[in-house]
TrEMBL record, chain A:
This is FA complementation group C. GO terms for biological process: cellular response to oxidative stress; interstrand cross-link repair; nucleotide-excision repair. It comes from the Eukaryota. PANTHER family: FANCONI ANEMIA GROUP C PROTEIN, FANCONI ANEMIA GROUP C PROTEIN FANCC. One of its GO terms (cellular component) is Fanconi anaemia nuclear complex. Pfam families: Fanconi_C (PF02106). InterPro entries: FANCC.
Automatic annotation (TrEMBL), chain B:
It comes from the Eukaryota. InterPro entries: FANCF (IPR035428), FANCF_C_sf (IPR038505). The lineage of its organism: Eukaryota, Metazoa, Chordata, Craniata, Vertebrata. This is FA complementation group F. It comes from Cirrhinus molitorella (mud carp).
Length: 555, 335
């Protein structure tokens, strides 16, 4: 099997020759344009070389490799790229023979040593060499400081070029900005580069025109997501405003990181979301909020039983609202701008957080929400209108975003009297089953009430009656209502009174499957975030929450 | 103290051996130990570089060892104190260039461990990034008094180095040695060095660093013909900027221009001023330089005018061409 194709070899060899030492503007531009695909070609070459048993064999199988690697080592644009550099050096190490057996291998060894010399030091007798030699620093520190200084010079130029009005002949023309950003493509992960990268991004924001090299944007975005580059918050937000692709990348990256680590997220989902900067950016830029919502909405509709995504949406919205409230009133956009598709009357009740409403008023508030939502669903049931269906979906999505009210309803259900339970159960049912396919709503509400009744018995009677244990288990295993019952169950465990030990006792008996436990952790994650934002901390509740979490985490 | 001197001698011997074929006797363990010694040596440098007494003692120790090693190994290149800061790097380069060196150094370099002391990745990245960005900056229409970005940065670093060396008093000799070594090691391309020196002068322009500026100018004037060569290498524009910035430079520059003018003789047959010595100075060159000074605006413009008129007066105050170079210059410059 050929590790590298002949066409690829010819293509890349021609490129390497063409680029030379990257002394011309076009060479730098072309190199930066091809950097990403060059890395994968080098990876293929490396894999090919690793399968060789000797340097002689390698030179026979890949006759181009010496010239190719050599030329690339003289191209500072390639060498400055951390990943390409490592790949090149690993290729060189494959070609080095610990025990050279013939002239070819001895020559290869010498050539490799010379190449390394060239990479780490300047030519002897040159002024560069002399100034470095007597600098009283290690070459590494000297070049690091030199790099910082040239970055400072370039940053100064970029900043100065923003000072004038759009039509004055800027000293730093768009062409220069483009050239500079092309040179930065290889260096996106270099820590000394952040001032220049920040200045270039800021320039693009201020001057409006898109003169940044597209590969530059891509590399910076990737470096930020993988945390190999750290920029100031304002600069990151600038990048997202400048490039929708980068924004999408950041939103998807947040989603992926949340989904991949349930245990950590159950502890600190809100911190993780805030650290992503997305809520704060959304509060300052309406289009950012709308874009992120669009992405998460689509994910939700594809896998709508996914409690993790719902938890993320809920926490994201809550953090966003907090950011929004932190702004000066005159800077704040109206809420309508952020939620354009939903019935305006729903905005106030849902977007007011439970922490902003006195506890005694929660039941009334929830009844208000319920009646608004009920009228939307009744509209849909009345006609065949697609728009009415859309209205239900938008209303439901807003409820998902403001899931803290659903959690509040579930909390209230723990201690509610039967006469007050109805609106709360309706909300919970609507949240978990928004569609009324085959007029299932009444059926689902009945299931909810049944589950609630049994859970009350389970958590309020000592010892927990086995009859109720098995009924709850049965309800959980029926796929129609698992999430709803689980939601109720988790809230009962956390908010009921009674000894903490029953939590473990009941949970161990009722939640036996790994998948169900996993889902329960996500429900806990959103309960925890809501409790974190409350004015006062209820230690009793927090300790019950932790106990339940520990029980669920035990395999 | 004796121990430290012995250690230094050790290290110099190690460095010397690493350049000869006796290095084939080294195994992996020996190589590692050699690097450990080199690391220790770097610590010595950082600890004692500002301690005048200890450093001089170390320097004389180095001198003795250098002499001895030069006698036994003719290819040996002496090591000066300032180089000790890069001992590990020196050792590395010696081993890479030495065909007799065994493979351990390559093994150490190519090891996958990223944070190992032999990891060259960040050096290579910074060095090539510096190279790439200097070239990029030069391509934009930014000018730093006509100097290239690389010269500007190296000049700033040189200025910074001299600042820190000259801050403790009594260190002038050491600073002079540093500049001498840089000059000596720059073999051929001195124009690049002059650019860097000019950039160093430009960067040390504020009050806190004026002593560095004085020092550099004094060093240039002490080195025979150095200042003159520097002025000839730098563009008229750059010399003007430096003259505006420092009156010391301005006076020295005028002195050089005067000296160049004194090398010109009037060739009656050609009606031209021609050079007499092997200084490649021409009348046009002088004109360009003065023109640039005069175009720079107050106060340099007026000062230069005054100076020219004074020189013409001192040399006889002629109004006719062909007798006095200053007269002819003034006529040419239409003053």
């Amino acid at each position: 099997m050929e590790a590298v194709s002949e066409t690829d070899v010819q293509f890349w060899m021609a490129k390497a020759v063409n680029w030379g030492e990257a002394t011309s503007c076009s060479a730098v531009l072309d190199t930066s344009r091809h950097l990403i695909s060059l890395r994968s070609f080098l990876q293929q070459v490396l894999q090919g070389l690793q399968q060789m048993s000797s340097t002689s064999e390698a030179m026979k199988t890949f006759p181009f490799v010496g010239q190719f690697l050599g030329r690339l080592c003289w191209n500072p644009c390639v060498i400055a790229d951390e990943r390409s550099q490592r790949l090149l050096l690993r290729c060189l190490s494959c070609l080095y023979s610990a025990e050279p057996l013939n002239a070819v291998e001895r020559k290869a060894n010498m050539w490799i040593k010379n190449m390394l010399c060239h990479l780490v030091s300047d030519k002897e007798g040159s002024v560069a060499h002399a100034t470095v030699k007597h600098a009283g620093l290690t070459p590494k520190r000297y070049h690091s400081e030199a790099l910082q200084k040239v970055v400072a010079l370039m940053t100064e130029e970029v900043i100065k070029s923003c000072d004038g009005l759009p039509n004055t002949s800027a000293r730093c023309s768009n062409g220069s900005i483009h050239t500079m950003s092309a040179a930065c493509v290889a260096l996106a992960t270099c820590p000394q580069m952040s001032p220049l990268i920040g200045a270039l991004l800021k320039h693009s924001m201020l001057c409006g025109s898109s003169c940044l090299n597209p590969e530059f944007i891509k590399e910076v975005s990737e470096a930020l997501i993988s945390k190999r580059l750290v920029l100031e918050d304002e600069v990151v937000v600038n990048l997202w405003c400048y490039s929708p692709t980068c924004l999408e990348g950041a939103a998807v990256s947040l989603l992926e990181s949340v989904l991949s680590d349930c245990e950590t997220m159950a502890q600190s989902l809100d911190k993780h979301v805030i650290d992503s900067l997305l809520p704060r950016a959304s509060a300052h830029h309406c289009h950012i909020f709308l874009t992120i919502n669009e992405i998460y909405r689509n994910v939700l509709t594809e896998i709508d039983e996914n409690l993790a995504v719902r938890a993320l949406i809920q926490v994201f919205t809550a953090c966003f609202l907090q950011s929004l409230n932190g702004q000066e009133p005159q800077d704040r956009l109206p809420l309508r701008a952020f939620f354009p598709h939903v019935m305006p009357s729903l905005l106030t009740p849902l977007l007011t957080a439970p922490s902003e409403v006195p506890r005694e008023a929660w039941l009334d508030h929830l009844s208000w929400i319920r009646s608004l939502l009920q009228s939307v669903t009744e509209n849909e049931e009345a006609g065949e209108d697609v728009r009415a269906y859309q209205a239900v979906f938008e209303a439901w999505f807003l409820l998902v975003q403001c899931g803290y009210w659903v959690d509040t309803a579930a909390e209230l259900l723990v201690l509610a009297e039967p006469e007050n339970a109805e609106p709360l159960l309706w909300l919970l049912t609507f949240f978990h089953h928004p569609t009324n396919r085959g007029h299932q709503r009444s059926q689902q509400t009945a299931v909810a009430r049944e589950a609630w009744t049994h859970l009350r018995m389970l958590f309020l009677t000592r010892p927990p009656p086995p009859r109720h244990l098995s009924t709850v288990k049965e309800l959980l295993s029926s796929s129609l209502s698992t999430n709803l019952v689980l939601h109720l169950f988790s809230n009962f465990a956390v908010f009921s009174h009674g000894p903490v030990s029953i939590i473990t006792e009941i949970t161990d008996k009722v939640l036996t499957e790994a998948d169900v436990k996993h889902r329960a952790l996500w429900i806990l994650a959103s309960i925890r975030c809501r409790l974190n934002s409350a004015a006062t901390r209820n230690d009793r509740v927090h300790s019950r929450l932790s106990t339940l979490q520990d029980t669920l985490l035990q395999t | 103290m004796e121990a430290v001197l012995r250690h230094l001698t050790n290290i110099l011997e190690l460095l010397a051996v690493s350049q000869t074929d006796r290095v084939s006797e080294w195994d992996h363990h020996t190589t590692l130990r050699a690097f450990k010694w080199a690391e220790y040596c770097e610590q010595l440098h950082s600890r004692f570089q500002s301690n005048l007494t200890v450093r001089s003692a170390l320097e004389s120790g180095l001198n003795d060892t250098n002499q001895r090693l030069q006698e036994t190994l003719p290819s040996y290149s002496p090591v000066v104190f300032s180089e000790l800061a890069q001992c590990q790097h020196m050792l590395l380069v010696h081993l890479l260039k030495n065909p007799s060196a065994d493979n351990s150094v390559i093994q150490m370099l190519f090891t996958e461990a990223q944070e190992s002391q032999f990891d060259q990745n960040s050096l290579i990245t910074c060095k090539s990034a510096f190279n790439l960005l200097c070239r990029t900056l030069d391509r934009t229409n930014v000018s730093h008094a006509g100097l290239q970005a690389e010269a500007v940065v190296r000049g700033k670093l040189l200025g910074k180095l001299l600042n820190s060396v000259l801050s403790p008093s009594g260190n002038n000799e050491y600073a002079r040695t540093l500049l001498d070594c840089i000059l000596h090691d720059s073999a051929g391309k001195l124009e690049n060095l002059y650019d860097i020196v000019a950039a160093a002068l430009l960067s040390t322009n504020d009050e806190t660093n004026s002593f560095t500026q004085h020092f550099i100018l004094a060093w240039l004037r002490d080195r025979d013909g150095c200042f003159s060569k520097l002025c000839r290498s730098l563009s008229p524009g750059l010399c003007t900027v430096l003259s505006r910035q420092s009156s010391e430079f301005k006076q020295a520059y005028w002195a050089v221009l005067k000296q160049w003018a004194s090398c010109l003789e009037y060739e009656v047959l050609e009606s031209l001023w021609v050079p007499t010595s092997d200084e490649p100075v021409t009348f046009n060159m002088l004109t360009d330089r003065f023109k640039d000074l005069l175009n720079s605006g107050p106060p340099l413009k007026e000062e230069t005018e005054t100076e020219l008129k004074t020189l013409r007066r001192e040399d006889g105050d002629f109004n006719v061409k062909g007798i006095n170079v200053w007269t002819d210059l003034i006529i040419q410059l239409k003053l």
